[in-house]
Specification:
The chain is α/β, with parallel strands linked by helices. It contains 11 helices and 9 strands. It has a 4-stranded parallel beta sheet with strand order 2-1-3-4, sandwiched between helices. Strands 5-7-6 form a 3-stranded mixed beta sheet, with no helix packed on it. It has a two-stranded parallel ribbon with strand order 8-9. α5 packs antiparallel against α6 and α8 crosses α9.
Length: 332
């Protein structure tokens, strides 16, 4: 073999060694990144759970929300990919109740032996779904005279699933998530506890502000030209309400009697604001407002958020602070 051929062979060998070294180094770097990113995998069904888990875990976990921003949660159906995410999760958080009936059946068919489960309905004292319907078809409740009103009850007891609308319940849920994360990741217990307490402090402040507003309020009745997912909220603060639909109603159009009754009530009681919930078409609320020369405002149940708000990073706390401003007007 002449010197030229030997030189070429040596060059090829050197290149192969160099490529091998680069490849091996690349693998080591990739493994290092994977090890550094060995985070807890948390899967939640909807926004309230997402926000509470995010507040406690922050950057220490990857959190997947199954019901995407802007999507109507009452019509959600899981995909095979969603189910796989749940099965592979360290922690799965869901609400329970009528909207999450699919969860119970799915969990029975999955191997969740390595997955912690947190059901929001197990974190609080449940309240029956309010479907007390007056003769006019209005969902109504008064702390003073509801026992004397004409109404009919469903023979089957259903519980309101919007448990987080009470700030006190939100705190109980956060405390539960904190305990579970501390069990799953003992090395970061101090971090999770610190994060949880910081968020709880913010929610405590919201609770105190709402109590002060209610204490000094001119009126105690809220009128909703929409669904009513605030049973836990009004019970917490001793408020009364009138609403066109119950919390999880599939109805889109109230009866003429319902509209007529609400218009008369708004006029007689000088109600300053007709309320609607987030992601609503606001049709009924706008009709009531036009007929009574009032305005509409949103009282956010934090059930879900728009894609735009999600990208802006809204939180349970920021939305409840907006609710405080709405209550100041609605209860004046």
């Amino acid at each position: 073999m002449n010197k030229k051929k030997i030189g070429i062979v040596i060059l090829i060998v050197a290149i192969l060694f160099a490529v091998g070294a680069i490849f091996e180094n690349g693998i080591k770097k990739k493994e290092a990144v994977i090890n550094q990113d060995n985070k807890l995998q948390i899967v939640v069904t909807s926004f309230p759970q997402y926000d509470f888990a995010r507040a406690v875990a922050k950057d220490e976990a990857d959190i997947s929300m199954l019901i995407k921003p802007g999507v109507e949660s009452h019509s959600y159906e899981p995909t095979p990919e969603d189910i796989q995410k749940i099965e592979n999760a360290d922690l799965f958080i869901y609400t329970g109740g009528e909207n999450d009936e699919w969860v119970e059946g799915m969990l029975d068919s999955l191997d969740t032996s390595k997955t912690k489960l947190v059901k929001l309905e197990d974190c609080v004292t449940l309240i029956e779904e309010d479907e007390t319907v007056g003769l006019e078809g209005v969902i109504t409740h008064s702390h003073e005279d509801h026992e004397d009103s004409d109404h009919e009850h469903s023979s089957e007891i259903e519980y309101d699933e919007h448990v987080w609308t009470s700030p006190k319940n939100a705190i109980k849920i956060i405390e539960k998530i904190e305990r579970v994360l501390c069990e799953l990741d003992e090395e970061k217990q101090e971090t999770y506890s610190k994060n949880a307490q910081e968020y709880i402090s913010e929610i405590d402040d919201i609770d105190m502000q709402i109590r002060d507003i209610v204490k000094h309020a001119k009126r105690k009745t809220l009128v909703f030209g929409d669904r009513f997912p605030f049973k836990y909220f009004v019970e917490e603060y001793g408020l009364d309400y009138k609403a066109a639909f119950p919390g999880c109603s599939d109805e889109m159009e109230p009866s003429a009697d319902t509209i007529s009754y609400l218009i008369d009530f708004i006029k007689e009681e000088n109600i300053p604001v007709v309320l609607h919930v987030e992601l609503s078409n606001e049709k009924v609320a706008n009709t009531l407002a036009e007929e009574t020369n009032t305005k509409t405002m949103c009282l956010n149940s934090v059930h879900n958020v728009s894609q735009q708000d999600f990208e802006k990073g809204v939180t349970y706390v920021s939305l409840m602070r907006e609710n405080i401003e709405t209550l100041k007007v609605a209860l004046q």
